[in-house]
Design a protein that fits this description.
heterotrimer, A alpha+beta (about 375), B alpha+beta (about 350), C alpha+beta (about 400), B: about 350 residues, alpha+beta, Butyryl-Coa Dehydrogenase, subunit A, domain 1, Butyryl-CoA Dehydrogenase, subunit A, domain 2, Butyryl-CoA Dehydrogenase, subunit A, domain 3, 4-stranded mixed sheet, 4-stranded antiparallel sheet, 12 helices, about 55% helix, globular, C: about 400 residues, 8 strands, about 50% helix
């Protein structure tokens, strides 16, 4: 058998638990100050530049990075604990999320010294926000087919083309993007791609909102019409961007945000149903909790693998595949158990508001960051089937 | 058994399909939410002109005297087009109730207007907590009620004592005062929250006995299931067409078995739904004692299958499925409301409960 | 549309019920259970003859072949009533439901006259020789060859999953007659008497303990050139026609699902949980699961009737049979798995329950074969998506 997809159990250190306590105290204060809602009525992460900055001030961003770049040289498991607490409480982490989770780590691994000095400290301070420039209208699951190109000009590159699904392009400072810098060869359609940091204040970049089905502005279409960026925008090696972007995608897939999106709903559901619930209800909630606890162990295990310097591509795909379908299951169960109750249509029924928002967002979980179908293909490859 | 439609019924289907395609283009569906209209008037008038609003109305009152199967065909096509017209509540449920329970004057007053597309009706169905006094004053709360906002008439089904129900008709002039807008994620229809606090209306002369209540329940469940089935068929078609056209990895995504098998399972589920929905529709007119169970079973299957197909349509479309740029989201939102607007999501355990009762 | 029996259909159904009540007796069942192998086949051969004499076996066939020119709906009534009476597996179904209908459509007149009537009344038992060890789902690439030599064909190769071959009189063989044409254009079908010299039949043990199917080895087997069915190199069309009939034939399992539902209810009502506290039928998740499969069983019956009405009675059914087959066989498997789940929660110290367990065990294991035979569920999904939805290959 050529596959070895293991999830080694992790026991968190005392340091992790102490850190957890510190994060919880901080978040409790934030709730008291009204910065985080006591009772979330929406799923997903809200955007607050102020909150991101305050986290940066507390030293909880750039956790694993060298101190020389503004980081704190902490462990992946410690970072996991911080992340978990932030998500479980509904903290508004959207603004810094991408930069801290993936853009920063890409720069740390592949960036030049100047790039590391320029961006990493600001990301760690919660002052510098990134968005992801990968998908295009004709290149979603088939990312390698992307066509947005960066032509070499004197002193830099000229960008022409369109990126799509770029969440927060309207608010971020920079985009970490993958562009085509040379034609693909017939042997390797992934060659000829390069990674760039694009300063979104550069003239000629047009950001058009694309409303999601909840009527919210999150996605954008970003159009580059001969936009000129300097040489030092290139990250890592020319034409070797695919490998760098793959590493980036692995970071994107591995965290607890891939199964915690509807966690609040589960918590509110249990609270609302109360201790005198029927056996049938207890069984259904029990089944959800079994999955929750298991996913958490698997997710921790992936963090442990990152800590050990491994590349848990298949494991991360497994966790995301199971986790996102779990995220969708919670609103289904909640709807079944809550909608028949007599108080469901009351004006002040905030759990209903949360449920309805979760229902609207549900389809996104198994699409964003790699569809379920693509993830299963990755897992199949890990099993030696492709 | 002869489980197929007649040629006449197939012609009716074809005719409705063409009518709805002309009168209810997707552009109008998309714009409906912003329009402030109670329903799509043009489509309503076209349906009236073609005789479809009179499907359950005798010719003497301007109807076309068809039947529940034909009404089900119309509902299916309307559901597929995401049309915003109060067909089920007006042309089906209300027409049937007034025709069976009304006296001559009541029938003459309302049925021709329904057939001619001059009035719309919303149904406030049986509610345990609603009541009507001896002098006709109604107390009760209903939400969500489809097409209540802007309806000309409201038909309330109330406890009449002795196992019977009474059906009371309330006029529009009262209606607006009683109906609050109930905004939902489904922008293709308007819903209302109805509150009656002592409002009086006109009682239909005959009471609605248990058999009549069962018939009404069957009509609403089977009718809703048929409409939902139309939506699911269009959602599946949308996903199938996209899978044929969208190229990734150098080939249409419909060549990947993950997509093929998902759509194949949808077709199997939809064909199963079709069998039980048509059985329910047929039973209403031809096997009334079995109709309610067949109808709630059909609705229970629809509640599950339709939402799944609509959701998978979004999945097949990937990121674009999650935007408002394409229409996949409309089918999901509609399916969600369909699950609750005709009563809470149905439960297929009724099917078993009945059998256990027979065996006991 | 009419979803209940017409007067004629009701009369016929009464006749079928009465006949089955008189002939499919407890004694008959005991006799059947006590026999094995060739004796059991001869017992069932007699039964097929009785069904034929009673006018139940092949009603929808043309009268020139022993049928009654009846509408397909009467065949469905027979299948429904057989299922309700728990009739044992129909060993003659391969000939009756797959081979004979194909012969009636595609064979020469002399072949039709020779073989079809003898299939109808059980005089001949038929099997299919299609799949090979290396070619199951990918059937058209098969390699068993039939080489012309004078007025004969000489067959060499190996077939597998050949049901009843060890007891059958004939095999309908699919073999390669043209090495140069594209794979599916180089095949032909033949009637092969299984007593022909050079044929070696070896049984395979199934996971349900039975040995209904075999490997067949062909070693320089000579058959007459008249044994060719249809056109030379036109065997794929013959095979596909048979598969269309086969899928519809397997779908009668849907009628059996209704009986399974009743059995599941009976099982849940009669069985207490291991801690003795409750009957299984009182548990909400048990009710939920049984109700859902009950609804699907109702749907399976309705599907059979609705799909039968899609084509004129004697035409070859279409790809919609894949919908029926996939639905009915997967439902059958799900229902058996549910039965084991229920029994698994029961008190097995009770001998009655243990007896029930053994019987359900066998049926459960058998259910695995149905989602594989006649084209696996995965192949059915490919057929549905490609031929019904038009998705590209």
């Amino acid at each position: 058998m050529s596959w070895d997809v293991r999830f080694t159990p992790i026991v968190l250190s005392e340091r992790c638990e102490t850190l957890r306590g510190e994060v919880r105290d901080f978040l409790a204060q934030q709730r008291k100050a009204g910065i985080i809602p006591e009772v979330p009525t929406r799923v997903g992460m809200d955007y607050s530049a102020d909150f991101s900055r305050s986290l940066g001030e507390r030293g909880w961003l750039g956790w694993r990075w060298p101190k020389a770049y503004g980081g704190h040289e902490g462990t992946a498991l410690e970072r996991y604990v911080i992340t978990e607490e932030l998500l479980a409480t509904g903290a508004p982490v959207r603004a810094h999320w991408v930069a801290d989770r993936q853009s920063g780590p890409v720069l740390l691994t592949f960036g030049s010294e100047a790039q590391k000095q320029n961006y990493l400290p600001r990301i760690a301070a919660g002052e510098c926000f990134f968005c992801i420039g990968l998908s295009e209208p004709d290149s979603g699951s088939d990312l390698a087919s992307l066509r947005c190109r960066a032509e070499k000009i004197d002193g830099g590159f000229r960008i022409t083309g369109t990126k799509l699904w770029t969440s927060n392009a309207h608010r971020a400072h920079y985009m970490l993007a993958l562009f085509r810098t040379a034609p693909a060869t017939s042997e390797n359609r992934r060659s000829g791609l390069s990674q760039f940091i694009v300063d979104l204040s550069t003239p000629g970049i047009e950001v058009r909102p694309v409303l999601n089905l909840a009527g919210e502005h999150d996605f954008n279409e970003v159009h580059f019409d001969g936009v000129e960026i300097p040489d030092d925008s290139l990250v890592g090696a020319l034409n070797k961007g695919w490998g760098q972007a793959s590493a980036e995608l692995a970071y994107e897939r591995s965290g607890p945000e891939r199964w915690l999106s509807t966690y609040h709903l589960l918590a509110r559901l249990v609270e609302t149903l109360g201790p005198d619930s029927s056996e049938d209800i207890r069984r259904q909630i029990g089944e959800l909790l079994v999955d929750l606890v298991t996913l958490r162990q698997m997710s921790l295990s992936v963090a442990g693998m990152l800590e050990a310097g491994k590349e848990p591509t298949v494991q991360a795909a497994v966790v995301k595949e199971i986790g996102t379908r779990f995220e969708q299951r919670i609103p289904r169960v909640a709807h079944q158990l809550l909608s028949a109750r007599s108080d469901y249509d009351d004006q002040d029924n905030t759990v209903r508001d949360l449920l309805e928002h979760a229902i609207l967002w549900s389809p996104a979980f198994t699409i964003r960051g790699g569809t379920t179908e693509i993830l299963r293909g990755i897992i199949a490859r890990g099993l030696g089937l492709r | 058994m002869q489980f197929s439609f007649t040629e006449d019924q197939e012609m009716i289907r074809q005719s409705v399909v063409e009518l709805v395609a002309r009168a209810c283009p997707i552009s109008e569906v998309r714009a409906f939410g912003q329009s402030g209209a109670a329903y799509s008037d043009r489509l309503w008038q076209d349906l009236a002109g073609a005789g479809f609003l009179g499907a359950l109305i005798p010719e003497a009152h301007g109807g076309s005297e068809l039947g529940m199967l034909e009404a089900g065909i119309v509902l299916e096509v309307l559901g597929g087009a995401l049309a915003s017209v109060p067909y089920l509540s007006t042309a089906v449920a209300a027409a049937d109730l007034i025709g069976r329970l009304g006296n001559d004057a009541q029938k003459a007053q309302w049925l021709p207007k329904i057939a001619a597309g001059q009035i719309s009706v919303a149904i406030a169905g049986w509610s345990e907590s609603a009541s009507v006094s001896n002098d006709g004053q109604i107390q009760g709360n209903w939400a969500p009620v489809a097409h209540a906002a802007g309806a000309d008439l409201l038909l309330a089904v109330l406890n009449g004592g002795g196992g019977n129900a009474q059906v009371v008709v309330l006029e529009n002039s009262n209606a607006d005062a009683m109906v609050e807008e109930f905004p939902t994620m489904d922008s293709t229809r308007r819903f209302g929250a109805v509150e009656l606090a002592g409002t009086a209306g006109e009682r239909l002369e005959k009471p609605l006995d248990p058999a009549g209540r069962a018939r009404l329940g069957a009509i609403l469940s089977a009718g809703a299931a048929s409409e939902m089935m139309g939506g699911a068929t269009c959602a599946m078609d949308m996903a199938t067409n996209y899978a044929k056209e969208r190229i990734q990895f150098g080939r249409p995504i419909g060549t990947f078995q993950a997509i093929k098998h998902m759509l194949a399972d949808q077709l199997v589920a939809l064909e199963g739904l079709r069998s039980i929905v048509w059985c329910a529709l047929w039973s209403i007119d031809h096997a009334p004692e079995e109709a309610l169970l067949a109808a709630v079973t059909a609705k229970a299957v629809a509640d599950k299958v339709v939402l799944q197909i609509a959701s998978e349509n979004i999945q097949v479309h990937g990121g674009s499925g999650f935007t408002t740029d394409i229409d996949a989201h409309l089918y999901v939102k509609r399916a969600q409301l369909d699950r609750i607007v005709w009563g809470p999501p149905s439960h297929h355990t009724d099917f078993l409960e009945q059998r256990l009762a027979e065996l006991a | 549309m009419r979803l209940r029996d017409s007067i004629e259909e009701a009369t016929f159904r009464d006749y079928v019920r009465t006949w089955l009540g008189e002939n499919l007796t407890e004694q008959w069942r005991q006799d059947y259970a006590s026999l094995e192998g060739r004796e059991r086949i001869d017992f069932l051969r007699k039964w097929q003859g009785q069904l034929y004499e009673a006018g139940l076996a092949v009603r929808s066939w043309p009268s020139s072949y022993g049928g009654k020119d009846a509408p397909l709906t009467e065949d469905l009534i027979v299948f429904e009533e057989l299922a309700k009476h728990d009739a044992p597996p129909d060993v003659f179904r391969i000939g009756v439901r797959i081979i004979a209908p194909m012969l009636m459509k595609l064979a020469r007149a002399d072949q039709r006259e020779n073989y079809v009537p003898r299939i109808a009344d059980g005089r001949d038992l038929w099997s299919q020789g299609f799949s090979e060890p290396a070619f199951g789902s990918d059937l058209s690439a098969l390699t068993t060859r039939a080489v012309r030599q004078g007025d004969k064909f000489v067959i060499n190769g190996q077939k597998v999953w050949n049901t009843y071959g060890h007891l059958a009189d004939y095999c309908l063989l699919l073999a390669r007659t043209n090495q140069d044409a594209p794979p599916h254009k180089g095949l032909s079908t033949f009637v092969v008497p299984l007593s022909t010299k050079g044929i070696d039949i070896r049984p395979l043990r199934q996971m349900n303990g039975q040995q209904d199917f075999n490997e067949i080895f062909f070693d320089d087997v000579e058959i007459d050139e008249e044994a060719l069915v249809g056109e030379l190199d036109g065997g794929w069309k013959v095979a596909m026609t048979m598969l269309d009939f086969e899928r519809r034939g397997i779908s009668v399992l849907g009628f059996g699902c209704r009986g399974l539902y009743e059995k599941l209810i009976a099982l849940a009502r009669a069985t207490r949980t291991r801690d003795g506290d409750q009957y299984l039928i009182d548990l909400p998740d048990v009710r939920e699961n049984i109700a859902w499969v009950g609804v699907q069983a109702r749907i399976a019956v309705l599907n059979n009737h609705r799909f039968a009405a899609m084509h004129s009675d004697n035409s070859v059914p279409g790809p919609e049979t894949s919908v029926q087959k996939l639905h009915a066989t997967e439902l059958n498997k799900t229902m058996h798995a549910l039965a084991l789940d229920l029994i698994g929660r029961a008190d097995l110290t009770n001998p009655q329950v243990r007896k029930s367990f053994s019987s359900w065990e066998r049926e459960y294991l058998t259910s695995f074969g149905m989602t594989i035979a006649g084209g696996t569920s995965q192949i059915q999904r490919n057929i549905i998506s490609e031929r019904l939805l038009g998705l590209p290959r």
